[in-house]
Amino acid sequence: MTRLLLTLLLVCCTASAQAAVRIKDIADIRGLRENQIVGYGLVIGLNGTGDTLRNAPFTEQSLQSMLDNMGINVRNDNTGGTTPTRPTTLRTRNVAAVMVTADLPPSIAPGERMDITVSSLGDATSLLGGTLVMTPLRGADGAVYAVGQGAVTVAGYSVQGQAQSVSQGTPTTGRIPNGALVEREVQGRLHDMEFLVLELKNPDFVTATRILDAINRFAGGRYRSQIAFERDYRTIVLSKPRYIGPVRFLAEIGELTVEPDTPARVVINERTGTVVIGRDVRISTVAVTHGNLTVRVTELPVVSQPAPFSRGGQTVVVPQTAIEANEAGSQVAILSGVDLQRLVRGLNQIGLKPSGIIAILQAIKTAGALQADVIVQ
After folding, report:
1. Which ranges of 223-353 does DSSP label H, i.e. alpha helix?
2. Cβ neighbours around 290 below 10 Å, total
3. Are 27 and 211 in contact (CB under 8 A)?
4. How many C-beta atoms lie closer than 10 Å to residue 239's C-beta?
5. Which DSSP string do the residues of 324-361 spell out, in sequence order?
6. What angle do CA 297, 301, 306 make, to 5 degrees?
7. Which of 38, 84, 299, 342 is most exposed by smallest CB count within 10 Å?
8. Which of 118, 149, 116, 115 is nearest to 133 (CA)?
9. Could you list the pLDDT tens digit for every one of the 377 residues in the chain?
10. Across-strand partners of 327?
């Protein structure tokens, strides 16, 4: 299992390092980003799986406010007069308060639709079969950018009986495909930008230089000019030619391929036993051995009873503990990280589990022989 894991890591890292990628896959255009919007609404039509209004007073208040806006008074009971006689308390279980979230795409126009996510806010057990009532979605500036409404699609389910319950997924969260109608356009357009700025998703000096060289080589033959210059290791500024539109210009630049550089890094997740080793990780020549010491402690209590017809005797429990220690044999292997393949081969010679590999890599880093950054998640 360990050999298979390390082999897969070797194949993935080697393949990703040798393959060139498009610029648009490793860089974004500054200013062309999504904007988060959020709203509070009600999901109705649930089959008894909604909020308990006694435990979720905000759901009851929202339901009363919605009915008041529709001209239905449920806050008090008027018996022919104008003075209320007694308050009315709702007892429905078919309504749930939810938070509606969405990402507003760039350059989206009013009248277009987008997907939204609906999440329960109270103690509802499931949103299956519910319908979201018209909910305004606001941005960080408080303006309404979209309005959401529609049937909620839930992937999970939850069934509960008196002695057993079965659940799968998260039934209190769902999505509404094309459930939001855009009402306002985000300010700022691509044509208004004087300079186009590329932002690297994984900032790196070498990667930024390779992107800069690839763009200028292409622009020298296509536009007869140098159009790109670096601002720092994260951003590259592009000067768009006047006789070409920004959409076509970015389409041509985005299709150029470069080979991104990755730092020497080892990522360790001790909870899941995952180890990811980068291509450029190097280990100075070291000798490594790893042994497993297993200690087993077994409690075997014995009941001691007094002899027959004895006086003052009591039945007691006498503890007995059995301790067994076992240390498995191990091999001594020499690791020399000339390349990733030799490093993986050396770790395979020892025959370790992921937990042992994690311990060895951390020990090699402490010894100063691991020439890479170790990130422990």
Report:
1. 246-254, 340-350
2. 19
3. yes
4. 15
5. EEEE----EEEE--SSHHHHHHHHHHHT--HHHHHHHH
6. 155
7. 299
8. 149
9. 445 444 445 444 444 445 789 999 999 888 788 889 999 999 999 988 888 888 888 888 888 888 888 888 876 655 444 445 445 567 788 999 999 999 998 888 899 999 999 999 988 888 988 999 999 999 999 999 999 999 999 987 667 676 677 777 788 999 999 999 999 888 766 777 778 889 999 888 999 999 999 999 998 888 888 889 888 889 999 988 888 888 888 899 999 999 988 888 888 887 887 888 887 888 777 777 766 655 566 667 777 777 776 666 677 777 776 666 565 655 555 555 555 566 666 666 666 677 777 887 888 888 887 888 888 88
10. 293
> How far is residue 81's CA from residue 284's CA, in Å, rounded to a whole number?
91
**What is this structure's pTM?**
0.67
The CA-CA-CA angle for residues 187, 188, 192, to 5°, reads 145
DSSP string, 36-100: EEEEEEEEE--SS-S--TTT-HHHHHHHHHHHHHTT---SB--SSSSS--SB-----SS-EEEEE
Report the distance separating Cα 281 and Cα 340, nearest Å. Answer: 7
Cα gap 209→232, rounded to integer Å: 10
Residue linked to tokens 């990522």: 267
Question: Position 176: which residue type?
Answer: I
Which amino acid, 108? Answer: I
Phi and psi torsions of 212, nearest 5°: -60, -45
In sequence order, the 6+-apart residues with CB closer than 8 A to the CB of 25 are none
- Cβ-contact 364, 286 below 8 angstroms: yes
Number of neighbours of residue 338 by Cβ within 10 angstroms: 10
Q: Residue 6, Cα to own-chain centre: how many angstroms?
A: 25
Contact 299, 321 (CB under 8 A): yes
